[in-house]
Each structure stands twice: as C-alpha cells, then as structure tokens.
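User: For a reading group we're discussing how well predicted structures match intuition. Take Flagellin N-terminal domain-containing protein. Before you show the prediction, I'll give you the sequence so everyone sees exactly what went in.
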Amino acid sequence: MKLLQQLNLTGAKENSAAQPLSTANNKAAALSQVNKSDARTGTESRSGLARVDTGRFQMWSTIGQLQNKHSQAQGAERSLTQVYRALLNVGQSSKTNVRHPQQTADQIRQLEAKVSHNLSGALQPKLLNAQGDQKEYQLGNIDLLTPKAAETVNLVIPAAGKSVSFHLPAYGQPKEMLDNINRALSPLKISASTTAGQKLVLSLPAEQQRMLEEPVLFSGEGIRIPAGNPVPVKLLPQGSDLSELAKIIENDQPDEILSAVKQLKSKTKNTIAQVRHFIGQISQDAQTSLPNIDISSVQQQVGQALQQGDFGSRLTALLAQANVSRDTTVALLKKKS
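Assistant: Thanks. Here is the predicted 3D structure of Flagellin N-terminal domain-containing protein, as structure tokens, for the group to look at:
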C-alpha cells in the first residue's frame, strides 16, 4: 500500500511538472490530495504500531516481573549461604580450646545486619513471606517442649477473647509437641517455632500484635503448668535467630553453642532448598510464558519503524525493548547449575 501511494505521489508530481496547472484552484486541489494521502498513511502506520506495541509491552512487562523475582531470590540464596558458612565456622571454632566468644558474637551480629535486607529475623526470605511482617514473642521460663508425662494445656488470650487447648503426649519429641501446638493456634493466625536454645516462640501478623503484648493465661495439670488457677504470663519480644545465637556464643558453653548451631544449620539448609526450588519455578514460568524471541526480527522491525517516521512513539517502544537484552533473557531462562 505504501509503495503504491509513493508511486501515485511520484506520478502526480511528474504530471504536474510536465503539464502545469492552469489555475490556482487546481493547484490547491492537488496539494490537498497530497496532504490527505500523507495523513492517511501516518494514521495507518500509528494504528499498526499500537497493535504491535501493546503485545510487545506486555511481553517485556512479564520478563521484567520474572527478572525481578529471580534477582530477589538469588539475593536471598546468597544471604542464606553466607549464614550457613558462618554457622560452620562457629561450630568448628567451638570445638577448639582457643575461642574468642566476644569477637565471634560481634561477627554474627554484623552478619545479621548484612543479610537483613533479604532475610527476616527468623532467617526466612522476605520474598517468600506471604504473611507479611511478623511479630515474635518468647514464652520465657515456661517449658512446654521437654519430654515429660502427658498433659493438656489451656491457653487464654484475653486481648482477643479467645482460648485454645492442646495435648502434649507423654515423653513426645519436641517436633510432635510443636505440631500439636501449631494445630491448636492456627485458627488464631498464630504459629509456634523454637529458637536455637529450644525456647518456644509464638509468631503472628504485625497488625495483631496486641493479642500477645498483653499477658496471657496458662493452665495445666501440674506437670508443665501448675494446676489450679490460670497462671498469667507476660510474653517477651523475641530477638532474631542470629542475635540469640550471639548471646549463646557470649556465654562460651561449647555444648550449647553446638546445639544451637546444629539447629540453625538444619533450618538454613532447608530454606536454601526452598529458595532454589522457587528459582526453578521462575525458570519454568519463563519458559511457558514467554514466546521464542527472534532478536534479528526485532532489530529489523525497529529499523523499519525508525524509517517510517512517528519517531516519538517508536522511540518509546525501542527503549522498552532495550531494557531486556539477549543476555538478560538467556540468563533468566538458564537453569541454575
């Protein structure tokens, strides 16, 4: 179409040169025809560009979102790997006769500050934390996880007007008892975990923190919790995993340090596996969501667009395409070795 229009315009110009128009009206009519043809050509070009660019912008937007998640996940993996290596060093040094507790504790606190932009205080990637910001509270001196005789414990949360009960089996393993506690607390959006020192920690969304800021009431059967009237307990704000480890290191008790390091190593290793699985999912999403990109075809289209005028809108398209290069796309789709 454009070629035909150009030929028509050329023919009109040649005819006008060979046979001059006799009147001013004929000149005006010829110029009007040329202007209308140019305007129609520009409108058709912009309409076609809009149809092409809409799909292309969506494609680049998808690439950008996946690339952002991929970058955050890799950052979390690097931070977790740094933590794991530090735990290995702490474990090895605690077995020797030459130890520097304060220096090692300070190094752990420095590491905590370094990885805090990627990891929460519980050493969980912020990217994977669907529940948002969490507040954590430690149970203090009440020990519900040490294997003892069977007992049913009642917990009343006055600030929420709620109460729950959970059964602690006779001489059960800490994990089994922790699972029972979590099942009882889940309707309240409260979860239970343990610190490196095997202290029970209760976590809940930040907007609900008032529930645990006020004292709660425990009652039991005299095994772990005194029988009779409920016992009021003020929960303590929980420090991060690494800050708790630093306190244990400062006490310079090798057995306690090794126990804490062992627990954190297992936790960190599992989290690293989760992050790597998430990175693999991103790669799969990229492969299924993105079409095969023919770079040479894109270059050819860009060249044609620049030659056809309407430079402003085409420049916008060019800049959007330039944000994701061939190397970036290949790196995104490449599975992590």
